[in-house]
Amino acid sequence: MKRVLSLVLCCIAFSISASAQRVPAADSAVVTKHQMTANGQRFAYTAKTGTQPVWDNSGKVVATVHYTYYSRDDVQNRDKRPLVISFNGGPGSGSVWMHLAYTGPRLLNIDDEGYPLQPYGVKENPYSIMDVADIVYVNPVNTGYSRVLDEKADRNLFFGTNADIKYLAEWINTFVTRNNRWASPKYLIGESYGTTRVSGLALELQNAQWMYLNGVVLVSPTDLGIKREGAVDIANRLPYFAATAWFHKRLSADLQNRDLEEFLPEVEKFTLDELLPAVARGHSVDAATKERLVKQMAKYSGLSETIIRQNNFDISTSLFWKELMRDKGMTVGRLDSRYLGIDFRDGGERPDYNAELTSWLHSFTPAINYYFFNELNYKTDVKYNMFGPVHPWDRSNDKTGLSLRQAMAANPFLHVMVQSGYYDGACDYFNAKYNMWQMDPSGKLSSRMDFKGYRSGHMMYLRKEDLIKANEDIRQFIKNSLPAPDQPAKY
C-alpha cells in the first residue's frame, strides 16, 4: 500500500513539475464522446486527443507529438473505413487550421466569408468528411502542444524537409499500429508546407514503413522542390494577378463582365504561349512585340503599363500587393488577396503586414484553446503553438514533388487531388497546375491527378461556399479512389 501511495505521489509530483515547466507528457490520451450531423447523417463519434512519443535510433524518447483522432462509432468494419491523416504547414504551424475550419467535426465562429466574429468559440461542422472517413490531425514537433522533450536531442532530427518526413513516417507507423488501422484505406492531406510534407511522406511510407496509400490531397501546394527560376518564375505569377484584379474590379469592363473561370484560361494561354517566351528572350524581343505584351499584361493584371515597363515584366508578388490598390490607399493580402490592409504610408514596394493572417489569428487562437479545454477536456499548461520555434529549417535536397510521382508510379492505387484558391498569392493556383505538369511530363499518371479551383485564397475553406464545395470534392475523391473489392494493384 505504501509503495502504491508512493508511486501515486511521485506521479502527482512529476505532473505538477512537468506542468509548471510547460512540458507535455510523452504518452497520454483523453477520450470523449460526441454527436454530430455531417452530410445529412446523424451519428456518434469518439475523439481521442493526446501525445505519442518520438524515439531516436537508440529507442530513447526525445520528443512527443500531439494529435487529435476522430472515429465514427457506428462503423461495423473499421478495415473498410478510410483514415485521413491531416497536416498543416509553416513549417512550424499547428494543425489548427484544417482541424477547426475544414474537414473536422467542429468549426470556429466566423462569418460566411471567413472574418472573425465574437463571441469566440466553435459550432458544428455539417460539411465535415466524417461521414465517409475517420481523421487524425497531427502537430509536428514544437507546433500545437508537441514539444522536444530531451534538451540534448539533435534538432536536426526534426527541423528540415527530409528529417521531418522521416520521423513523421515512423510516428504514423506507430499510430496506425496502436489504433489497428493497417487494413484501412489511408489518405494524407496537407496544406501549404504540409503539401511538401505529405508528398515526401507518400514515398517514405512506402519505402521505409511498407505502408501504401490510396490518396494524397494537396491543399494550396508549395513548389514541392520543382524549380521554376528566371522566366518561368516571372511569367507564372500573371494568372494569380489577373484573378485578384478581377476580384477587386480593377479590370476593363470587357474582362470584368466575364466569369472568373471562363476568363482565367485565356490568361493562362497568354502566359504560356506569349509572355513566357518573351521574358526568356529578354532584350532580343523587338520593340513592337514588347510594347504589345506590356499593354496585354497591364490589361490582365490591373497594373499600369508604366510599372510593367519599368520592371521589365518582373512584377514581384510583394509589389503587386502594394500596387494594385495603391490609388485607394489600400494593400491586398498575401495568402488571401480578398483581404485589404492599411499601411503607414502609401509609398513603398511591399505591404507593412499580411492583412489576412492577422484576421485569421484573431479568430483561430481563442477557438482552438477554448475547444481543447471545454469540449475535448484536454487541460494543460503547455501553450498551443499556432506557430512554433522550428527554425533554422533545412530546406536542402527537397525532391518531394518527384517523390510523390515515384510513389504514384510504384503504387497503381495512389491518387492525387490538388485544391487551390484563385486569390492565394503565396502558393498560387497556376503554380499548383505547373507542379502537376512537371511531376508527370509524360502524362502517364494524369488520369490519377485532379485539380480543383476555388474562389477564395490559401485557406479556401474559410469561405462557406468553398467549404461546402471543397469538402464534397474530398468526399468524392475518397469514394472514387477506393478500389473495387478484390481489384489487383497492377498496370
From TrEMBL:
Annotated signal sequence is 1-20
Keyword Acyltransferase annotated: no
| Positions of transmembrane segments | none
Q: Keywords for this entry? A: Carboxypeptidase, Glycoprotein, Hydrolase, Protease, Signal
Which superkingdom?
Bacteria
List, in alphabetical order, the GO biological process terms annotated in this UniProt record: proteolysis
Q: Which GO terms describe its molecular function?
A: serine-type carboxypeptidase activity
Q: Gene3D superfamilies per the record? A: alpha/beta hydrolase (3.40.50.1820)
For this entry, the protein name equals Carboxypeptidase C (Cathepsin A)
In its UniProt entry, the species of origin is given as: Sphingobacterium wenxiniae
Q: What is the lineage of its organism?
A: Bacteria, Pseudomonadati, Bacteroidota, Sphingobacteriia, Sphingobacteriales
